Amino acid sequence: MNKTIYFLILLLLPAFTAFADTEPEAPGSKRFTISGNIRDKESGEELLGATIYVHELKTGTVTNQYGFYSLSLNPGEYKITISFIGFTPIEKVIQMRENITLNVEMAPARQQLSEVVITGERPGDNIRKPEMSVVRMDIKTINRIPALMGEVDIIKAIQLLPGVQSTSEGSSGFSVRGGSPDQNLILLDEAIVYNASHLLGFFSVFNNDAIKDVTLYKGDIPASYGGRLSSILDIRMKDGNSKNFAGTGGIGSISSRLTLEGPVIEDKTSFLLAGRRTYVDIFLPFAKNKDIRDNVLYFYDLNAKINHKINDRNRLYLSGYFGRDVFRNEFARMSLGNQTGTLRWNHLFSQKLFSNFTLIQSMYDYELGTAEGNANSFIWKSKMQNQSLKGDFTWYINPDHTLRFGVLGIRHTFDPGFAKGTGSESLFTEYRLPLNYAMEYGVYINNEHKISSKVVIKYGLRLSAFQNTGAATIYNYDSDFNAIDSVLYGKGKIINTYIAPEPRIGLNYVINPASSVKASYSRTVQYVHLAQNSTAGTPLDLWFPSSPNVKPQKADQVAVGYFRNFKDNAFETSAEVYYKNMYDVIDFKDNAELLLNPKLEGELRTGKGWSYGMEIMVKKNIGKLNGWVSYTLSATRRQIEGINEGNSYRAPYEKPHNISVILNYEFSERAVLSSTWVYSTGSPVTFPTGRAVIGNVIVPIYSDRNSYRLPDYHRLDVSFTYKNKIRENRKWQGEWNFSVYNAYARKNAWAINFQQDPVNPYQTYAEKTYLFSIIPSITYNFKF
Question: pTM score > 0.85 for this model?
């Protein structure tokens, strides 16, 4: 281990020696810096990833996640072009005789129909950027994708990308390159979202109207991110229109939404407020079935944000999310929800050193119970929360070196369960599982080094640590996973510590302006895990920490890709191959007891896993017909002692073949036809293959774990959007969206159960359960 850390320190030394400029300077000359922010002229929103290009040097930079950029140049005259997709480029001639602050507001481009662009990046960025296995999705593109019941969904859009599999139909859970759903870190304005699902996973918690940017890291994960094994889904909320009061919204088949934004102090302070609610419960009293007339079923969410520009060097952001699902009938009740809060301070130490300090709170809780008034009445609650503090720094040393470094601390609190009887007639007594506490730390440094016009390399190291703290009871287990004794630790006592280095490296070689080859390696470590008995998106998820009995999960992933554009970047193509080794992966023994179990660790089994695959994507960015086609060929295996007799078995989310076809056709500026067709191999399942008679009871004999598959899955969704006629002096703009989910009514198997024939008990028949047939929906969207 010491040799490994020593080697990694040597690897990072070039980052610290980058004080010296790599470009020759004239004798006695001094470099000057141009820096500033790039914003949308109409709304004042910062533009993430806007490009600043210096023609004389054939180099440049891009704005960071807060719209800030910085470039250090030798004295002289330079022509620069500032560009961002969907906006009119700006050209300027600058005289570098002193440090310059240049803030730019870009106007949206009024493009002709034949030039409609669907990508969220500058043409050719996929060739030049040193990152791979990363996808940025534009909200306008996501809004075009046909959606279940008209509810446009970020998570469902992510599931259409290569390397990403849905865990089950309609679910917001997803698997990335063979990982389980809990191996994906989902962030909303840097706050962790533990359960991104509404209505058992049919919808996600993200309101598109409130979202500005969506980035998925499937590999080549930056050193600034940690805590999960497979992917990072980084979602950023809009900052709020700092120029004018504006609103967007929609009225749909099952829900409506409204977003309001505007300046509190023009160009200085702005706000955003977005709300969404379903109203199925409003119509339930009119149902023909009397049994459901008194049911309550709805979800709501609220996004809020305010940002304030103190001066050119300081800016504050305060944002939050609050959402909840509620179900109640005469027999049972259920409630669950997420809460997040983020306070950020952007500070510019100098024109070269940008910083962001963040204070974060995240919480997920749920409760399940029965109606009061009988002996079996009870309520069960569970909660997971954390508080974190982080500091991130970006040092724009020169055009060839950008150094990023930072530190993070998280305080975890796990409340696995509390149950008690409700009402005076209940026979249940109070029962509480002990709380668990833990601290997670991270420190990182990463350098992006432009070696030449053709070669860019990124290298970095993240050092993470995890500590369990008291008060806690730690059980000791024998070789058969039976608890033999326990140790009680006092409040604040450090029980154990894990420390793990996580190196990251990536390389981009530009063959020519239209093609490049990229490669990456990353090690990731995960300290917090999810106990889950179902892939169907149920809320009864139990998060638990690494401990003396549960080692952190680790993964090593390597990937190589070839990227090629055609016809002046009208077509983007990519092919990536990857291999991922996973260590100390977690699964559960057959018939594991996960809920309200103080000895949950005795139900766990750990071992190794591996996945590999190839991902191909073809994207057409411009023209009346645009969209993308993706294909994934993959395999994922687990091998864990005590499961499947120690033999390797398919992971629950392994689907060797996965195809997504997303097409949009622009009839005119007002009419767009969109379609999505998906196909995948059926999910692995364990089926009974025989029976045994013990006494008078027939007992099924099951196959090896996940040795069978459900039937292959495929589905076509179609939508048509028609915009109202646009008038120059009219602020109100509206559009109608007509969509059909599962257009050819494919009855895809959600589950297959085997039932004993009531007439002949020695015969068994299979019974298929499917969720959706054809589902039409209508939504009216508006903005003003």
Answer: yes
For residue 784, the SS3 value is: coil
Rounded CA separation 78/95 (Å): 7
Residue 223 tokens, joined? 């050193």
pLDDT digits (tens, 9 = 90+) for 143-152: 888 877 777 7
Separation of alpha carbons 105 and 43, rounded Å: 10
Beta 255-265 vs 269-278: how paired, if at all?
Answer: antiparallel
Which tokens sit at 461?
Answer: 């190291």
HEC readout, 95-149: EECCCEECCEEECECCCCHHHCECCCCCCCHHHHCCCCCEEEECHHHHHHCCCHH
Neighbouring residues of 512: CB distance < 8 A, sequence distance ≥ 6: none
Residue 783 in tokens: 């903005």
The reported pLDDT for the residue numbered 2 is 45
In the chain, count of helices (H) and strands (E)?
5, 51
Q: What is the DSSP string of 434-488?
A: PPEEEEEEEEEEEEEEE-SSSEEEEEEEEEEEEEEESSEEEEEE-TTS-EEEEEE
Would the pLDDT of 540 be above 70? no
Tell me the sheet residues that pair with 138.
none
- Residue in this structure with the two tokens 């003396």, named with its chain if needed: 548
550 has pLDDT over 90 = yes
HSE-CB at 547 with a 13 A cutoff on CA atoms is 24
Q: What is the dihedral of CA 184, 189, 194, 196, to 10 degrees?
A: -80
Q: How far apart are CA 527 and CA 43, in angstroms?
A: 40
Which helix or strand (DSSP H or E) is residue 59 part of? strand 59-62
CB 147 within 8 A of CB 157: no
- In this predicted structure, the answer to whether residue 18 has a pLDDT above a threshold of 80 is no
Judged by DSSP in three states, 419 sits in strand
Task: Give yes or no for a contact between 339 and 321, defined as CB atoms under 8 angstroms apart.
Answer: yes
For 285, the 3-state DSSP assignment is: helix
